[in-house]
Amino acid sequence: MSHPSRANEHSYDFKWGIKSGMGGKNRDLQFYESFTYDGVEYSLYDCVYLYQTGQLETYIGKLVRIWETPTREKKVKIVWFFRPVDIRRHLGDDVPHWNEIFLASGEGKGISNINALEALGGKCKVVCTSNDKRNPRVSQVELREADYIFYRTFDIGSLKISDNFADLIDGIKVEYFFNRKKDQKLLNPRNIKANLEVRTQTIDSTSKSDMSTLDMWPLKKRKLLLSTEKELPGLGPNTSPPSELEERSNMRTLLPLRIASKRDPEKLTVSLPGLPKHEEKNLNPKDSTSQNRARPKKVKFDEKAITIPDKAASQPAQNEGIKARTGSMDDTRRLDADRRSWFKELPWDKRIQRAHEQGTLVLLENLDRSYTSSEVEDLVWHAFNVRATAKMIQCGTFSSPHNGKAFVIFKLKATADMVISQLNAKCLMLADGRPVVGHRKAPTDPSKPASFVGHLFIDKIRFQRQPEYMRNAVSTSHYSQPNTIEFDLATEWRVLQEKSVLWWKALYEQHSKEIQDLKCQLKHIF
Amino acid sequence: MFVHKFTVIIRSLYNQSSPSQNLAVCLWVEGTPVTAYTKTFNLQRSESRSISEFKVHQLHMESPAQNEYALFEQKVKRAVYIDNISPQVTDAVLKTALNQFGTVVSIHFIPNYVEPSKIPRCALVEMAKQSEAEAIISDMNNYPFMMSGMPRPARARPAEVEMFDDRPIKPGRRIQCRWLDKEDPDFEVAKKLKHLVRKHASEASFMLKNQLEEEEKLAKQQAEVLKTNYKKYEMIDSVLADGAARRLARHYNFNVSDD
Questions:
Q1: Where does the RRM domain lie (chain B) (predicted)?
Q2: How far apart are CA B45 and CA B42, in angstroms?
Q3: N or C end of chain B: smaller count of CB under 10 Å?
Q4: Higher pLDDT, A321 or B143
Q5: Interface confidence (ipTM) of the complex
Q6: Does B214 score more than 90 pLDDT?
Q7: DSSP-based three-state secondary structure for A255
C-alpha cells in the first residue's frame, strides 16, 4: 500500500460496494457501482440530495460516476437537476408543476460537477414523466410516491427549456436518466425508507403552496394577489441578491466541512469527531486544489447568470460574486465559512445567536400561533420572494394567545433590512386581519441558567456534612403533606400562581377586545 | 371518509352562493401535495349531481398528512405542560418525578428565546397514556408538588398544540396574505393594529415584570419566616440541651417529663 492511510475512513459509517474497474490517466482511480454511506445504500444512477447547513435548499442530482482517488478521497460525479427557482428567470410564463425539476442538458458549464462523496444527504425519488418512447412509464403509485418529477430539460448553453431529451447528456446515455425498467431495483422498500428529506421539504412546500394558494383562491383574489405582486417592482432582483444561478454554482463545488471550517474549530469537531487536528491541516491543501479544479468549470456559467438576468443585482451580491470569481482561495473560504457546516445543523440557539450578530435575524410578530415554522417560511417566500429559515417560537406560560412569534434567519443582512423596511412602510395582512410586525430583537440565550426564586434552604443545614445515607438518597419529588410548614408556604405560592393566572387572563381579555374593536373597522377581510 | 368531506365542501358552497352562478370550485386533498381539482360549473338550486362530475376515485381515501396530524393530536393529549420549574431540574429529575404516576415517554424543555431570561423553565412531558396525563394535571392542581427544592410548587397544565416544536402543518390550511400600501382603505386600521401589537407587548412585559417582583417578594418573605422558625427551634433545642429548661422548670415548680 503506497498511500498513507487516513483515519477519517472510520469516522463515519461508510462501506464500498461493488467495484467496477480502474480508470483515470494513470489507471489509479478505483471506480465503484455502489456504496453505503450513513446507513443508506447508494448505487450508480441513483438520484440524490446534496445538502449543506445554512442553505435552505438541497441540490438534486444523479450519481453518474463514483470513484476513489489514490489518496483515498471519495468522489462522485453528479449531473444536476434544477429546481424551478434556480432557473426562474428563464421560465417566462411557464408555470412548472409543483414538484417538477429540470434535467440539466446541453453544452456548457454547470451540467455536472465532481463532489466529495460526503456531501450526499440522502436519496431522492425522482420520476421521469416524459412521453419520450425511450422512457419506461411508471405507475400511479410510483408517481405519487415520487419526491420530484421531470419531463423537461434545461439547456445550460442556450438557457432554454425543452421537452426533448438528447441522446447523450454530459456524455452519458440518456436512458440512464429515464426511469429504470421494472427488473431493475429502483423502488425497493429500502430505497423508499432511505428517502429522508432533510429540512428542505419546506422548499418544496414553498413552491407548492405558492402555486396551490394561487389555485385555491377565488379568482378575484387571485387577481388581487397578482396585482400586488406587480406593485413591488424592486422586490424581485433585490430580495435574492446573490443571483440564484450564480450562488448555486458557487455552492455546486460542494466540499466537505473540513475546508470551510479551518477557522471554526467548533464546527470541525461536530463533523469530524474521529479526525485528529493535524490531519485536517494536511488535508487542506489537497482539498483546495480540488476546489480549484472544480471552480473554473463553473466560472463561465457564473458570469452568464450575472449578465443575463439583471444588471441591477444589489451591491453585496456583486461583491460576493466578484470575490468568488477572482479572489484567492482565502476569499472563497471566508465567503462560505458560515454557510458550510456539513451534515449536522448547528443547534438553533447558536444559529440565531450568530444570525443576530450578523444582522440577519428578524423577529416576526402577530402571526397566528398555530402556524408552523415551515408555514412561516412559505409566508416569507410568498410575501418577499426570498428564502429564509424560520422558527416558530414555542408557546409557554407567558406567550400571548393573540401574538404568534417566529424568528426568521435570512441569508443576507440586506435582505433582513429590506424585509423590515417593507413591513414598516406597508402592511402585510394575513387572512384573518393580522398585520405582520417585524423587527430585530436579541434572542435570549436559553442555555443561560434562569434565575429562580422561591426555593429555600436553611444555610446551616446546607453546609453541614450530611450522613452517607442522605447523600446517597435520590432526591425525590413529592407532594407536600398538609401538616408541614412546607405545605403552608407552598399554599402561599399556589395562591400567587392562581392570582397571576387571573391577571394574565384579564390582560389578554382586554387585548382581545381592543383587537376586535379595531378589526371591525377593516373593510376587507378575506 | 374523504368523500364525505368532499360533499361537505360542495354543500357549503351551494348554500352560500346564489343559484345559477358561475363558480370556480377548487378542491384539494387535504395535506397531500397539491392535488387540486378545479371546475367551473353552473350551479342550480336543484342540482346535486355535480359531485359525480369530479373524479372521486382518483383521490386518496385518507391522506397521510391527516393521519400524521391525528397522531400528533393524540400525542398532545398525552402530554403535560409543566412550568415553575427550577433550573436545577434536569431531564432525569423530571422523569423520575413523573414516573411515579405513570410512564414518561419523552421530555422536552421548551427553550426560551424571546422572553427575558428570568422566567422559570417549562417543559413538555409526554406520558404513555392520556389518563396518566390527566391524573397528573388534576393532582398537581390539588396538591403542591415539589421538584428539586421547596416550597415553590411546580404547576401542570394540559399541553397545547402550539407548545410543540415538531407540530405538523394542520391539513387543509393555506395561509393567505396580501400587501396593503398607503392607498389601501384599510391601511390606517392596519397601522393601528400594528401599534396595538407593540402596545400589548409592552403591557405584557410590564405585567411579567410585576409578577416576577411579586414572586421575589414572596420568596423573601418566606425566607424570613423560615429563618425565624428555624431560630425558634434552635433556641428550644439549645435550651433543652444545656439543661436550662429543666432548671427553669424546677425554679417555677413545673413538672417537665423527659420524653
A1: 78-166
A2: 10
A3: C
A4: B143
A5: 0.73
A6: yes
A7: coil
- Dihedral over alpha carbons A87, A90, A92, A94 (to 10 degrees): -50
Picking from A225, A370, A485, the nearest residue to B178 by CB comes out as A225
Instruction: Check CB contact under 8 Å for B151 and A486.
Output: yes
Interface touch B87/A503, C-beta < 8 Å: no
Closest CA relative to residue A336, chosen from A386, A413, A277, A411: A411
Q: Which three cell numbers stand for residue A67?
A: 470513484
Chain B hits for A375, Cβ within 8 Å: 169, 173, 175
Identity of the amino acid at B174: R
Q: Residue A98: its chain B contacts at CB < 8 A?
A: 33-34
The answer to whether the CB of A313 falls within 8 A of the CB of A302 is no
**What local confidence, expressed as pLDDT, does residue A109 receive?**
76
Contact check, Cβ <8 Å, B175/A379 = yes
Provide mean pLDDT across the span A93-117: 83
Please give the residue of chain A at the shortest CA–CA distance from B119.
A450
Smallest CA–CA separation between A242 and chain B, in Å? 25
Cβ atoms of B150 and A489 within 8 Å: the answer is: yes
**Cβ B122–A379 below 8 Å, yes or no?**
no
Options 3.30.70.330, 3.40.50.2300, 3.20.20.70, 2.120.10.30; CATH for B65-158 is 3.30.70.330
Helix H or strand E segment including B79: strand B79-85
Domain boundaries, chain B: 8-55, 65-158, 185-258
Of A437, A441, A492, the CB nearest to B218: A492
Q: Which of A219, A374, A398 to mutate to test the interface with B (most CBs of B within 10 A)?
A: A398
Q: Give residue A296's identity as a one-letter amino acid code.
A: P
Hey, are the CB atoms on A370 and B162 less than 8 Å from each other? yes
Contact A456 B223 (CB under 8 A): yes
Tell me which of A31 and A251 has the higher pLDDT.
A31
**Nearest CB to A490: which of B153, B176, B210?**
B153
Distance CA B171, CA A220 (A): 24
Query: Which of B154, B165, B197 has the CB atom closest to A366's CB atom?
Result: B197
- What confidence tens digit (pLDDT) does each residue in B167-213 have? 888 888 888 888 888 888 888 888 999 999 999 999 999 999 999 99
Residue A303 has pLDDT above 70, yes or no: no
Q: Sign of torsion, CA A131 A136 A139 A144?
A: negative
Q: Could you tell me the CA-to-CA distances from A106 to A151, A166, A167, B125 in Å, in that order?
A: 15, 8, 11, 56
Instruction: Enumerate residues 6+ apart whose C-beta is below 8 A from A229.
Output: A235
Task: Measure the CA angle with vertex B23, ends B22 and B25; round to 5°.
Answer: 155
DSSP output for A426-476: SEEEETTS-B-EEE--PPP-TTSPPP---B---HHHHHSPPPHHHHHSPPP
- Which residue has 405513570 as its cell numbers? B102
The DSSP output letter for B151 is B
Task: Please name the amino acid found at residue A128.
Answer: C
Three-state DSSP state, B154 = strand
**Contacts A–B by Cβ distance under 8 A:** 301
For residue A382, list chain B residues with Cβ-Cβ distance below 8 A: 175, 177
pLDDT tens, residue by residue, A368-399 = 998 999 899 989 988 898 888 899 999 988 99
Look at the block and give the residue holding cell 486544489. Answer: A289
Residues 6+ apart with CB under 8 A from B258: none
Q: Are A221 and B179 in contact (CB under 8 A)?
A: no
Contact yes or no for B176 and A217 at CB 8 A: yes
Distance CA A326, CA A336 (A): 15
From CA A372, how far away is CA A376, in angstroms rounded?
6
